[in-house]
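Subject: mismatched residue count in predicted assembly?

I count 335 residues in my input, but I want to confirm that the predicted structure covers every chain. Input:
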Amino acid sequence: MAVSVRDVAAIAGVSVGTVSNVLNRPDKVAAGTVERVQAAIEELGFVRNDAARQLRAGRSRSIGLVVLDAGNPFFSDVARGAEVRAEEDRLSVLLGNSDEDASREDGYLDLFREQRVNGVLITPASDDAAKLRRLQDSGTPVVLVDHEIPGSGFSSVSVDDVEGGYLAAKHLLEVGRRRLVFVGGPATIAQVAHRLTGARRAVAEVADAALEVVEMPALTVLHGRDAGEDLVRRSAADRPDAIFAANDLLAVGVLQALTMFSDVRVPSDIALIGYDDIDFAAATVVPLSSIRQPAQLIGHTAVDLLLRSIDDPDGDYERNVRFRPELVVRASTVG
Ligand code: RIB
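Triage response: the counts match. Full output below for your records.
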């Protein structure tokens, strides 16, 4: 089997990115490291993959990133992490916002193909792998971000949202709540569906617990506020004692409705938890408990995975990276 960049990196005791820098921009690397890498190249008889370099050579100095909602700080943090890794290879990140709309998504995929980007990172609005396969077959590598399409063959970087949903609901149950409401978004968004699946599993473990689902048209603050206003208009007996919002933007809107338009107290009357742990979560009038996703690490890892798949197509690196969600407890559930 041909000697790969990874083999050189292992012998030299450096990262694949450092070997790539020595090959493409040795001026950016310490002299001692350059010597170690060059010694490893000679020892292994490594021959750089000219096809990969030519592939990159015929490309713009950019990577395309399509997100579901550019207004969601989660995705701006993903983009920030992607930029940090892309800049190591002097690449820029072009951001496209699909707004969860398949036709807008198609428009950006066509644009990035025309722009001959090095590759495309995408949080898809649906599991329609066919159009992504057409893009990849036309020579533009694709990496799924924050979502995995099992069996699609696409590399991905994501978080286990079923585990995340389980953690959120289990926390509400552990603080004594039993009448849970899941405020979610379109079930076509796999991340939302997976969080609900996890929440259902946690609720099923507690005999006297119940979970009601409220599906909103989108995962925004305004839709969260609408959901919250509807819930507080209910009689006290019909109100939940806990709300799990599918993301922090919904949770912020729900919190606004509960605290500004009603006499409901959070958490004593209704506990509230969100998802993502965006920066605002800690800054709300009642700091939000949430399920943390390592957004910047997701973006950074996705670009690294994309560049590895270009530089070392036959490499033996992990192609479906899954991070663990983390429960962050604040005043909106325990107070
Ligand atoms: O866009 C919907 C949600 O999916 C975001 O808030 C983030 O949680 C992503 O995983």
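Residues 5-48 form a domain with the 434 Repressor (Amino-terminal Domain) fold (CATH 1.10.260). Marking this ticket as 'not a bug'.
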